[in-house]
Amino acid sequence: MGFDMHLRAVQDSEIRLDHAWLEEFMGAAWDWDVHQAELKAGIAESISKDFGPMHELYEAADRLPEGRDGTWELPVFGGQLVFGAGDGEPPFVHLAPETVRRAAAFLTDVSFDALWEAGGPKLCATFGPGWAEGDVKSIYLQHHADLGDFYRRTAADGKAVVKAFWY
């Protein structure tokens, strides 16, 4: 069983900030064929299991000399939470177009190498002794590049982002 972060770009006017509606909206796109088509079209992105550590890597931006005023939170966990009525229902997250632009700007402006220097060794340690640092770094560099491309496209289109965390 996997644990995935799923992002979809959508016109903000089409979104209902209702947990049941968001569950249906995001669930309909989690079908393998639909998800692959949306990935190819550039209106979706996903990260399996590594999204929590990716958030930790972005958190290292607060330790960089230039600082980031908390915008490091936006690409993974940041945004407006929409909770369900029942216990144990994970929330969905909504980022309005202006917030998407801020996330895209952070991903464009931040130096991945500086982030890696500040937070990478901790992430490498979680992979275990059989992993070379270069291999682990390349995994996170690819996630960073994919998120940056997704957020920049979405910001350029003036769209919002809805996030789901599936398990």
Describe the structure.
- The mean pLDDT is 92.
- This protein has 6 helices and 5 strands, in the order E-H-H-E-H-E-E-H-H-H-E.
- It has 167 residues and is an alpha+beta fold.
- It is globular, with a radius of gyration of 16 Å.
- The longest helix has 24 residues, at 133-156.
- Helix 5 packs across helix 6.
- The chain has a 5-stranded antiparallel beta sheet with strand order 2-1-5-4-3, with helices on both faces.
Helix and strand succession? EHHEHEEHHHE
Average pLDDT metric: 92
User: What is the helix tally?
Assistant: 6
* SSE class: alpha+beta
- Per DSSP E runs of 2 or more residues, the count of β-strands stands at 5
Rounded to an integer, what's the Rg over CA atoms? 16 Å
Biggest sheet layout: 5 strands, antiparallel
Question: In which order are the strands of the major sheet placed?
Answer: 2-1-5-4-3
Give the distance, in angstroms, between the N- and C-terminal Cα atoms.
7 Å
Shape: globular
Task: Give a short overview.
With 167 residues, the chain is of the alpha+beta class. Helices cover 49% and strands 16% of the residues.
Attribute tags:
167 residues, alpha+beta, five-stranded antiparallel sheet, 6 helices, globular
SSE layout:
Elements: E1 4-10, H1 19-28, H2 32-41, E2 44-48, H3 51-59, E3 80-82, E4 92-95, H4 97-109, H5 112-127, H6 133-156, E5 160-166
Antiparallel strand pairs: 1-2, 1-5, 3-4, 4-5
